């Protein structure tokens, strides 16, 4: 098993944090490598050992966040062989806890300080997770891909609404709300 050098981990963490702090002040395209290095207290040579440009640093952090998002999304599936929304336990949902943990990052993604491309990458990641869930798709005549588009937009809509309320709801509250949303039945008379 190969171990990662703790110095590299700490350096990258310092660079990620510096980038997020600066993104609170200005957009991604207005940030210089020198500015990040100064804030992270590392030299430019160290930056160039790991990245070629500011966008590479952001993309690496974005990938780390979306990998954690995927693990959070999969959590309810770890407790059952087949996930039935009618039996979904809100305590097993971790996606909102993930958002809460990384809310500084999500504030930036939804604040328009980074290119819209990252919003769409987030959408595509959520859609990919939904698309992999073959168990959730059981209705004949419904286009699975369009259904995943619909669900991904619903999840992002909840997250954006939460962001717009400055993350004032608890993750547990949103878990309970999500379980209620996915179990709404439309009565046909």
Structural class: mainly alpha
Residue-averaged pLDDT:
87
| Main pleated-sheet profile | none
Segments where pLDDT lies below 50 for 5+ residues? none
Oligomeric state: single chain
Order of helices and strands: HHHHHHHHH
Radius of gyration, in angstroms, nearest whole number:
19 Å
Termini, distance in Å?
A: 61 Å
Helix content: 55-70%
Tally of helical segments: 9
Coarse morphology:
elongated
Count of separate structural domains: 2
Q: Approximately how much beta-strand content do the residues carry? A: under 5%
Number of strands: 0
Description of the structure:
It holds the Pfam family TetR_C_8. It is a single chain. α1 packs across α2 (33-40), α5 packs antiparallel against α9 and α7 crosses α8. It contains 9 helices and no strands. By secondary structure, the protein is an all-alpha fold. The chain folds into 2 domains: 1-52, Arc Repressor Mutant, subunit A; 54-182. The termini are far apart. The protein has helices at 6-23, 33-40, 44-50, 54-74, 95-101, 103-110, 116-132, 144-164, 171-182.
Provide tags for this entry.
single chain, about 190 residues, mainly alpha, Arc Repressor Mutant, subunit A, 2 domains, 9 helices, about 0% strand, DNA-binding, TetR_C_Firmicutes, HTH_TetR, HTH-type_Tx_Regulator
SSE inventory with pairings:
Elements: H1 6-23, H2 33-40, H3 44-50, H4 54-74, H5 95-101, H6 103-110, H7 116-132, H8 144-164, H9 171-182
Quick structural summary:
The chain has 189 residues and is mainly alpha-helical. The protein folds into two domains: 1-52, Arc Repressor Mutant, subunit A, CATH 1.10.10.60; 54-182.
